[in-house]
Amino acid sequence: MEKRVPLTVFATLILLALSAVVRSEIYSPTFSDFPIKQQSIANVAKPDVSKGRAHSFRTRLREGAAKGPNFAGHYTIVLWGCGTDCIEFAIIDAANGAVYFPPFPTVQSVICHDDKVIPRNVEFRLDSRLLIVRGVIDKNDLHNHYFEWTGKELRGLESWRR
């Protein structure tokens, strides 16, 4: 008697094999994957702190902006504490003073693992549009979060392939 493998079983096996191949190609983005040409700003603009959240954090934003660009060519990321194990940040355009906030309110910046305190943070570089947030940004989603700066907002990179 001849045994035949049902088509649905065969298709399922093919899909499982393909998903394993796709998963092996997904990796964590690196700063060099999102390069930006070095840009110099002759005069760093003062941040626009006239309204909204920017007005609430005007002193921190002014102090941070005065240090000059540290992210994506001509932007300045300013970080400040918001309580135990918590940080907030904003992105300031050094060319025109525009202030941008991330799409999440805070980052839980420290976690405990095996009785050790592990600091978590926000990583960025002057020569890259990539921003890495290590920690909790929404409920209990503790992991590394990757974002690309578009010039106006952070675009989440859930999975990114080379």
Shape: globular
Category from helices, strands and their pairing: alpha+beta
Q: Which sheet architecture does the biggest sheet show?
A: 4 strands, antiparallel
Low-confidence stretches: 20-24
Distance between the termini: 49 Å
Strand segment tally: 12
In percent, how much strand structure appears in the residues?
Answer: 25-35%
Mean pLDDT: 81
**Element order, helices and strands?**
HEHHEEEEEEEEEEE
Please report the number of helical segments: 3
Which bin fits the share of residues in helices? 10-25%
Number of domains as seen in the coordinates:
1
Radius of gyration: 21 Å
Provide an overview of this structure:
With 162 residues, this protein is α+β, with helices and mostly antiparallel strands. The protein has one domain. The strands form four sheets. Strands 2, 3, 4 and 5 form a four-stranded antiparallel β-sheet that branches. The protein has a four-stranded antiparallel β-sheet with strand order 8-9-10-11, with no helix packed on it. A two-stranded antiparallel sheet has the order 1-12. The longest helix is centred in the first third of the chain and has 19 residues. It is globular. About 3% of the residues have low confidence.
